[in-house]
Amino acid sequence: MRKWFAVAALLIVAACISPEEQAARDAARRAADERECQSLGFKSGSTAFANCLLKLKEIRAQEENTRAIDRANTMPPPWWGPHYGPPYW
């Protein structure tokens, strides 16, 4: 039992990232978004450029929301199965 607990704890810790790593990822994402908006012809510092950055952020959030919904819909039923819900209590 302790072995499984240790393995689970290691997996949880391995999934975490430091604040510095998160800041580096955020900066890289921001730089990529700025390059994308500039490649589309928006001038840095303009309102249209800011709107472009915002739209890219909205798209990313919507994609993450869609992935979360897909993950939730593909989860298997609990071990006791879907047949033992409230109507059968």
SSE pattern, N- to C-terminal: HHH
- Shape descriptor: elongated
Contiguous low-pLDDT stretches (5 residues minimum) are none
Please give the count of helices. 3
Beta-strand content bin? under 5%
Structural class assignment: mainly alpha
The separation of the N and C termini measures 32 Å
Average pLDDT metric: 83
Quick one: biggest sheet?
A: none
Helix content: 55-70%
How big is the Rg? 21 Å
Number of beta-strand segments: 0
Short description:
This protein has helices at residues 2-15, 19-39, 47-73.
Description of the structure:
The structure is a single chain. With 89 residues, the chain is mainly α. It has helices at residues 2-15, 19-39, 47-73. Helices cover 70% and strands 0% of the residues. The longest helix has 27 residues, at 47-73.
Q: Layout of SSEs?
A:
Elements: H1 2-15, H2 19-39, H3 47-73
Keywords:
89 residues; mainly alpha; 3 helices; 0% strand
